[in-house]
Design goal:
heterodimer; A: Recoverin, domain 1; two-stranded antiparallel sheet; 4 strands; B: alpha/beta; five-stranded mixed beta sheet; 22 helices; about 45% helix; EF-hand calcium binding domain 2 (chain A); repeat (chain A); EF_hand_dom (chain A)
Chain lengths: ~160, ~650
C-alpha cells in the first residue's frame, strides 16, 4: 500500500516538474503567469488534445474571477496535473484520423480537393482561422494537382512529429 | 422514402461533422506542439546567450586579478596595463589623411563634406558586397566623433504630425535588416528622423558596414539621425562577440588603427534620447536608483568598457584596507563592486548608473534585483518604472537589448516598450524584427518584418525544425564541453552502474552541471535516448559528437577545458597581443595559462600545458600563433560536415 502511494507521489511530482517546465517557457516576464492565449499551446505541448470547446471550458475554470488576460501558475498546476493523471484529451490515433478523411472523401478518390478541404475546415465544426487554414494548406496541398492525398499527408505528419 | 432520406442525410452530416472535428482537433494539436518546440528552441538560445554574458563578469574579475599579479611575474609593463589605463592620445586628423587610397581601389569614394549622395553611394556599394577603404572608415569615425563630442548625454527631440520619428533597436551587424528598414520606411532625412538604440555591431557579419551607414547618415543629418550607445558599443565586448574579428579580417593592414579609434569613438556616443520631453529611449533600461539629472552631467567619454570598472591604480600590492580593495570584487548579490576613482575614469556611482542604463531588463516581478542572467545592470519591475517615470515627469521608456519573437514587446502596463530590429537573430526564422513610429498625441505604431530568402516558402514544420535543430546543436556542444563533469555526475547517481537513469535524475544533473534553467524533460527526447520504461541512457548524448583533438597527447579534460574557455582565452590572448599580430611569446603564453588556471581553479598540470605550448610553436621561433591553435578546437558532428568556429554566432 505504502509503495503504491510512494509511486503515485513520484508520478505526481514528475508531472509537476514537467508542467512547470512547459509553463515557464511561455512565462516571458518570469512572474508565474502566462498570456491566456498561450494556454492552448501549453496544454497541447504536454501531449493532450482538447477541442476548442473543451479548451474554452478549461480556461473558464482556471481564469481569475475577473479575467485579467493572464493565467496564474498556481491555478493552472492542479487542473493540468489532474488532466495528466486522468489521461484526458488523448491524442487522435492515426487510423481514426485516416477514417475521418475517408468519410469526407465521399467519392472514395483517395484525395480531397483544395476547395473541399477549405470548405470543410473553415465552415464546419470548430472553424479554422485564416492563418490556421493557410498553414495547413502550405504543407498539405500538392500544388500540381491542387489536392491533398490524405494518406500520404498523415504519414508525413507522423514522421514530422517524431 | 422522404423521411428515410432526410434522416440519412442528417446522420451523414453528423458523421461528417465528427470527421471535421477530428481533423481540426488533430491539426490544432500538431500546430501547437510545433509552436511549443519553437518556443523551447528560443529559450535555449536565450539561456545560452545570457549565460555567456554572465561569463563576462568572470572575465572582468580575471582581468583585475591579472593586473594585480602580472607585475609580480614580469618586470616591465605589458599591454594589459596600457589597456586598463587606456588613455588614448588625441588622434590627429593627419593619421588617416596619410593613408592613401590607391587608384586601383574599386570601392566607394566618399566626398567630404558628405551629402545624401554619399549615403546612396554607400548603400549601393554595400549591396554589391564591396568593402569601404580604411581611409574612409577612419575619416568617417573621426568626423562623427567630432560632432558627437559637441552633443549632450541625452539628445532632446521633438516630433510633429509632419515629422514622425522612427525608433529602431539592435541591429547587430545585420545589414539586410537595415536595408529592409530603409526600404519600408524611407531613408533618413530632415523629414524622416531616426533613433538607433544601440548594439549596431557584433554577432552579424556586417557590423562595420552597418556602423558606416549609420555614421554617414548622421554626418549628413546630424539633427535627425540619433545614435544611442548600446552594451555592445564596447571594445571588450567586441573582442568576444565578433566585431574585432570582423575588422581584422576585412582590414588586414589597418584593422588595428580602426580598432583603436573605435575604442574612443564608442565613449562619445550619447547615453540616450528623450522624445517630446516624455519618452526616454535608452538601450537597456533603468534601476531604482536611476538619476537622470546625474546622468545628464556625467562625463560619458570616461566610460570605457563594462569590463573596466573604475579602480585605483595601486603601485604596491599590499591589500591595505585603508585604500579599499584594489580592483573588483563580486558583492553579495553578484553586482560588480568597484573602488577608487582615478581621474580618467568615472566615479563608481556614476559608472553604475551608466551600466544600469545599458544592461538592465524589465521583468514582471516588482522591485529591483541584480541582473544575474547577464551579470550587469538589474531586473526592474513595473513599480520601479512608475516611480522613475513619475520622478522625471516621463510617460514611457523605449528600450532594446532583448530579442523578442515578434520584434517588439510591450510590458509594465504599456510604459515599457522593447524594440529589437535584428530579425532571424539566433537562426533563420527565430524571430521578426521591428521598428516603431512615434508622433506626439498619437499612439505608437509598430512595423514588423523578417529577412527571408527562400524560407518564406517553407512550411511551418520546416521553419520550426531549422530553429530547433540549431538550438539543439549548440546545446549538445555545451554538453560536450562538460562531458567529463556530466559523466561523473551521472555515474554518481547511477548506483547500479546500469548506464541508465530516471529522467528526473538526468534532468537534475544536466541543470546543475550546465547551469542552464531549461525544460529538460521536454527536451530530453532531442538530446538523449530514452528506453520503453522512460529511463535515460545517459551516455547516448555523447555518441556521434566529439571535440576534434588537435594534439594527440592532450588528455580529454584539457581538451574540454580549452574548448569550453576558448572564447575567454581568445579575449585574454587578444588583450596581450597588443599589436594584433596573432602571435604571443612562449613566455607570455605560459604566464597567461598559469594565471588563468589559478584563477579559474582548473586542474590541468603544467607539463600538459608545456607540451601543448611547445607543439604550438611549430617553427620554433619562440612565438605561438594562437588563432591557429584555437581554430583547431572545433566540435565534430559525426554525420555532418565539420563546423568551423566562425559558423556559430554564439561561439564567435
Amino acid at each position: 500500500m505504502a509503495d503504491e502511494t510512494d509511486r503515485e507521489e513520484t508520478v505526481v511530482a514528475e508531472f509537476h516538474k514537467k508542467i512547470k517546465g512547459a509553463f515557464e517557457v511561455f512565462d516571458h516576464e518570469s512572474n508565474n503567469t502566462v498570456d491566456v492565449r498561450e494556454i492552448g499551446t501549453i496544454i497541447r505541448s504536454l501531449g493532450c488534445c482538447p477541442s476548442e470547446g473543451e479548451l474554452h471550458d478549461l480556461i473558464a475554470e482556471i481564469e481569475e474571477e475577473e479575467p485579467t488576460g493572464y493565467i496564474r501558475f498556481e491555478k493552472f498546476l492542479p487542473v493540468m496535473t489532474e488532466i495528466l493523471l486522468e489521461r484526458r484529451y488523448r491524442p487522435i490515433p492515426e487510423d481514426v484520423l485516416l477514417r475521418a478523411f475517408e468519410v469526407l472523401d465521399t467519392a472514395n478518390r483517395g484525395f480531397l480537393t483544395k476547395d473541399e478541404l477549405i470548405k470543410y475546415m473553415t465552415e464546419e465544426g470548430e472553424p479554422f482561422s485564416q492563418e490556421e487554414m493557410e498553414e495547413m494548406l502550405s504543407a498539405a496541398i500538392d500544388p500540381e494537382s491542387n489536392s491533398i492525398n490524405y494518406k500520404d499527408y498523415i504519414s508525413m505528419m507522423v514522421i514530422d512529429e517524431n | 422514402m422522404g423521411c428515410n432520406t432526410s434522416s440519412t442525410r442528417i446522420k451523414n452530416s453528423q458523421i461528417s461533422l465528427r470527421a471535421v472535428l477530428i481533423i481540426q482537433n488533430w491539426y490544432r494539436g500538431y500546430r501547437a506542439r510545433l509552436k511549443a518546440r519553437r518556443h523551447f528552441a528560443l529559450t535555449i538560445f536565450h539561456s545560452l546567450e545570457y549565460a555567456d554574458e554572465q561569463d563576462q563578469i568572470q572575465l572582468c574579475n580575471f582581468f583585475s586579478f591579472m593586473l594585480e599579479n602580472y607585475t609580480h611575474i614580469r618586470k616591465e609593463e605589458i599591454g594589459l596595463n596600457q589597456l586598463a589605463d587606456s588613455k588614448l592620445d588625441m588622434r590627429d586628423k593627419q593619421d588617416y589623411v596619410d593613408l592613401d587610397v590607391p587608384d586601383s581601389y574599386q570601392g566607394p569614394r566618399l566626398q567630404f563634406p558628405l551629402t545624401c549622395a554619399d549615403i546612396d553611394l554607400l548603400l549601393e556599394a554595400f549591396k554589391g558586397k564591396q568593402i569601404l577603404h580604411a581611409h574612409y572608415v577612419l575619416e568617417v569615425l573621426f568626423e562623427t566623433m567630432k560632432l558627437l563630442k559637441q552633443m549632450p548625454n541625452f539628445t532632446q527631440v521633438q516630433t510633429s504630425p509632419s515629422k514622425e520619428i522612427t525608433v529602431c533597436g539592435d541591429l547587430h551587424g545585420n545589414l539586410d535588416d537595415l536595408f529592409l528598414i530603409f526600404y519600408k520606411n524611407g531613408l533618413p532625412s530632415g523629414s524622416n528622423p531616426y533613433v538607433f538604440n544601440g548594439d549596431f555591431v557584433d554577432r552579424g557579419r556586417n557590423s562595420i558596414e552597418v556602423l558606416m551607414i549609420l555614421c554617414v547618415s548622421f554626418l549628413v543629418y546630424p539633427n535627425d539621425l540619433h545614435l544611442n550607445r548600446g552594451n555592445h558599443e564596447d571594445y571588450m565586448m567586441n573582442l568576444r562577440y565578433g566585431f574585432t574579428k570582423e575588422i581584422l579580417h576585412k582590414y588586414k593592414i589597418h584593422g588595428k588603427k580602426i580598432l583603436q579609434t573605435l575604442e574612443e569613438f564608442y565613449t562619445w556616443l550619447p547615453i540616450g534620447t528623450i522624445i517630446d520631453n516624455e519618452i526616454l529611449v535608452v538601450h537597456g533600461g533603468i534601476s531604482e536608483t536611476t538619476d537622470l539629472n546625474l546622468l545628464h552631467r556625467v562625463e560619458r567619454n570616461k566610460m570605457k568598457s563594462v569590463l573596466m570598472p573604475p579602480r585605483e591604480i595601486n603601485k604596491d600590492h599590499s591589500s591595505d584596507s585603508k585604500h579599499g580593495n584594489v580592483g573588483v570584487t563580486i558583492g553579495a548579490h553578484g553586482r560588480i563592486k568597484a573602488s577608487g576613482c582615478p581621474s580618467e575614469h568615472l566615479p563608481k556611482h556614476e559608472w553604475e548608473q551608466v551600466i544600469d542604463i545599458l544592461w538592465s531588463d524589465p521583468r514582471g516581478k516588482k522591485g529591483c534585483f541584480p541582473n544575474t542572467g547577464r551579470g550587469g545592470g538589474c531586473y526592474f519591475g513595473p513599480d520601479i518604472t512608475s516611480k522613475i517615470l513619475n520622478k522625471f515627469q516621463l510617460k514611457m521608456i523605449i528600450r532594446s537589448h532583448e530579442c523578442k519573437p515578434e520584434g517588439y514587446e510591450i510590458c509594465h502596463g504599456g510604459k515599457v516598450v522593447t524594440i529589437f530590429s535584428a530579425s532571424n537573430y539566433y537562426e533563420e526564422d527565430s524571430n521578426r524584427g521591428a521598428y516603431v513610429k512615434l508622433c506626439s498625441g498619437k499612439n505608437p505604431l509598430f512595423f514588423q518584418y523578417q529577412v527571408t530568402d527562400a524560407t518564406c516558402f517553407h512550411t511551418l514544420h520546416q521553419r520550426v525544425s531549422t530553429v530547433e535543430n540549431s538550438a539543439i546543436k549548440i546545446l549538445r556542444e555545451r554538453m560536450i564541453s562538460r562531458k567529463t563533469d556530466l559523466i561523473c555526475a551521472f555515474q554518481h547517481q547511477d548506483r547500479r552502474k546500469s548506464g541508465k537513469l530516471p529522467v528526473s535524475q538526468w534532468a537534475f544533473c544536466m541543470e546543475s552541471i550546465l547551469g542552464l534553467n531549461l525544460p529538460w524533460r521536454s527536451l530530453s527526447s532531442n538530446l538523449v535516448i530514452i528506453d520503453q520504461n522512460g529511463n535515460v541512457e545517459y551516455m547516448s548524448s555523447f555518441q556521434n559528437i566529439q571535440i576534434e583533438k588537435p594534439i594527440q597527447e592532450a588528455n580529454s579534460a584539457l581538451v574540454e577545458t580549452l574548448y569550453r574557455y576558448r572564447s575567454d582565452l581568445e579575449i585574454i590572448f587578444n588583450a596581450i597581443d597588443t599589436d594584433h599580430s596573432g602571435l604571443i611569446s612562449m613566455e607570455e603564453f605560459r604566464t597567461m595559462w598559469k594565471l588563468f588556471r589559478s584563477h579559474y581553479n582548473v586542474h590541468i598540470d603544467d607539463s600538459q600545458v608545456n607540451k601543448i605550448a611547445n607543439i604550438m610553436d611549430l617553427n620554433r621561433d619562440g612565438s605561438i600563433d594562437f588563432t591557429e591553435f584555437l581554430k583547431a578546437f572545433y566540435v565534430v558532428h559525426k554525420y555532418e560536415t565539420t563546423m568551423k568556429p566562425e559558423d556559430t554566432n554564439l561561439d564567435t
